[in-house]
Amino acid sequence: MVREDGQEKLVGLEQRMRVVEGTHLYNLIKVIEICLVSNVVILKKFRVLKFVKYTGTQCPVTHLKAYCNKIAEVVNDEKLLIHFFQDSLSDSTLTWFI
Hints:
mainly alpha, 0% strand, elongated
């Protein structure tokens, strides 16, 4: 069956990707295994913060100080500190951390 606007090609590519990737990629057990911090409790009233992203070109000590100042309300909760730290990273620093 031929579809409009290249849909036939898109369907074919999707089918190939399923064959190559398999159906087991998004297994819940695997997701749990790759979590950086398990059993993190985030209160409903907690607001997600916006961080200045660290790319590796700035001073890492300054970035850590700024991160701790920004997230001061949970500074005593190590799991939350670790959980949200990835939100302050980008580019190769995020790849390294994860």
